[in-house]
Amino acid sequence: MRPRERPLRDKLAAVAVVGRRYGHTAVFSQVVLNALLNKMVLVGSGFPATFNTQLVQDPEAEQALRETLDRLVEHYHKLNESPCGGVERLRLLKQVQFQTG
Q1: Which segments within 1-101 are labelled E, that is strand?
Q2: Do the domain assignments include residue 24?
Q3: Cα(23)–Cα(17) distance, integer angstroms
């Protein structure tokens, strides 16, 4: 995505991982890191939606998925309710200068 100037920049992202046996946290981490590397906006519910079994057998993961999807829709509406137009977006954090020594 870097050669194409990160076309996914500022797009909303949510990660849900489904697998059969193990390795879910590693896959979840890799997908999250790729989303962040591409400067996407990561939306979640606090608990990662990772499924080790079928959805019916894991109510905690089902709840995490529902909350993640709800927050994704909520953030989509927040970002689209008042477009910035030609005005540059406000930066919430000022540039930090690090000092050595």
Answers
A1: 12-13, 16-18, 41-42, 49-51
A2: yes
A3: 10
